[in-house]
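[audit] Reproducing an earlier prediction to check determinism. Same input, same settings, fresh worker. If the tokens differ from the archived copy the diff job will pick it up downstream; this log only records the rerun itself.
[audit] input (474 residues):
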Amino acid sequence: MGRLGFRVALGCAAVSCAIAAALVGRRLRSRRQWSRAVELVREFEEACATPVGRLRQVVDAMAVEMHAGLASDGGSKLKMLLTFIDKLPDGSEEGTYYALDLGVTNFRTLRVHLGGKPSMILNNKVECQPIPKELMTGTIEELFNFVALTLKKFVQREENGVDQISDNTKDLGFTFSFPVKQLSVSSGLLIKWTKGFSVKDDVNDTVGTLALCHYGDEDTVAAVIIGTGTNACYLERTDAIIKCQGLLTNSGVMVVNMEWGNFWSSHLPKTSYDISLDNESSNPNDQGFEKMISGMYLGEIVRRVLHRIAEESEIFSDAAQSLSAPFVLRTPLVAAMHEDDSPDLREVGRILEEHLKMYGVSKNAKRLIVHVCDIVTRRAARLAAAGIVGILKKLGRDGSGGVASGRTKGKPRRTVVAVEGGLYTKYSIFREYLNEAVGEILGEEVARYVLLRCVDGSGIGAALLAATYLSANR
């Protein structure tokens, strides 16, 4: 071989070695990047762990806080607001009633026709529309002008489409999804706007849900809403209320609005992502439980985890910027990715491209994203389950004995908890995790407990309560 040929051969060998070295280096970097991403997810999963022992600690903490909140105003993170509702519908109510349901994102108007026993609800009409965003930060007059005008148009359509509403009095129930300190069954003082509302310058939605489900099943003792926001209420014995607050009532029970979104305990598995979300929120150190279990925040927690992965690895290519905007990933999108069972995770890819501008994400990276969704959802559902059992423990209905041991004439007492809200009713994996956790906590006792899915409970329940109280006063 001549000198020229020898030099060419050496040159080709050097290029081949350089290419091989580059490929090896790229593979090593890729492995390191992937290992870092997996490590971050594993650390997050460990921090979110909810073994049954921890859940039982949350159960105990919830019951303790309920006792403290009843004992004194400000004695607990739980507001434990008395609703002055000391009777619930029983199926004997008759007539036509209207209801308003001012929720977190939507406003509903309802008309319910009751036929008494055995017909009960003969028919109902519900209309729903989103609350304009500008009204969520406007004045109180603008918000309630919107409510009044919407109601007027609804009643006109229901009253045979006439332009003028008759002078006959219309009986109305009002569901309000925000914390109110009630002064009576029909009046109260707004404590604060929550769940994205900051309006400047009445039954609670959970109470309406309790009313509707108790209407159909008298064993219903509590109601929980797990949707954009979250809250719970339950039937408290009035002897406990009288002992704590000196309240006089002719009934043996009263509905208590817990405002459980503000519950907090050191036993809750709080991560660095939860801490940063809380610190950067409009209400830091407030609504801690809600920020871990409700639909307003689950998508944001997932986003924060993915953003850190994007910053500390390259498995999402250059997606760090697209993942940097707060609340760009909403919980319904998390649910859709989580429930994608297609072989190539087609729905995950579509959501990443259309909503996050993340293109070319590998199948393994998509799987990691789904796993993050699963961690966040599972923790939320299991903590919500612990909260529910905490209510049962306060009532002595968790199978552990106590004041109301859960037995009647030697037989175990049946207990029903109504559950409403999109996370529970529409997100099947969330519902499965919650039901599973209730079973784990209660063990063999779970057979006598029913979690009853409820739809439109807050609005129809308000109409039923209006019927109950108006009938009693006639």
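[audit] rerun output stored. Observation attached for the diff report: The CA atoms of residues 307 and 324 lie 6 Å apart.
[audit] end
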